[in-house]
Amino acid sequence: MDKLTNEFKNSLIYNAGDTLTDYLEVGIDSFIEDGILKDIPIIKSITAGLKLAKNIHDRNLLKQLLSFIGELNNGTISEEQLNEYKSTIENNSKKCEEELGKVLLYLNSFIDKEKSFMLAKLFKQYIKQEINWNEFCEFAEIINRLFIQDLQILKRIKDRDIDLMFSREDEFRAERLYSLGLVGMSFNALTWGDIKDGHINSGRTISPLGKKFCEIIF
Q1: pLDDT, tens digit, 9 for 90 and up, residues 100-123
Q2: What is this structure's pTM?
Q3: Which residue in 28, 96, 119, 151 has its CB near the most CB atoms, within 10 A?
């Protein structure tokens, strides 16, 4: 089993999850030097390396891991469920590498910590068997390709059921959500006033995939 994946497995459960993201506010250096959180194996491993070479790549991964582990342990999933999942991968190195390895790859590619929060929410649904592994992978790829700025538009479309895209900027963002399969399209007749004001005749509706996605991340 890969050393980093094994350390990640042993870091999934952390009882003080609410405090993890607080460290992101005070800065990475404060706990790299002080050795805070050294009881989390994967954090200890990465911070040890950062003491020698404070590179941007590992610093970012550290932020994403703190966000993910903090959200995973925020009380919306029981420690018993986390332990049950951990036991399923304890003696199954192939499953551990496939699942935790993929999560690490995504965390390593994220820049926005909001994506790590969303990935943790998604992973909790997988652990609770609310979604299967294939669904997790599909939603994880959506998170990876998603523009954080587009979440506001997605939530608005979900809340309104049918949202008229009167803003060209909104339409541009809605197109990106459409390409991810999160929203659908409907067309509406334009009045002369609409045409004069430069309105467009497309509306957006939340797709079944988008509805399920929103239920998980919002």
Answers
A1: 999 999 999 999 999 999 999 999
A2: 0.84
A3: 119
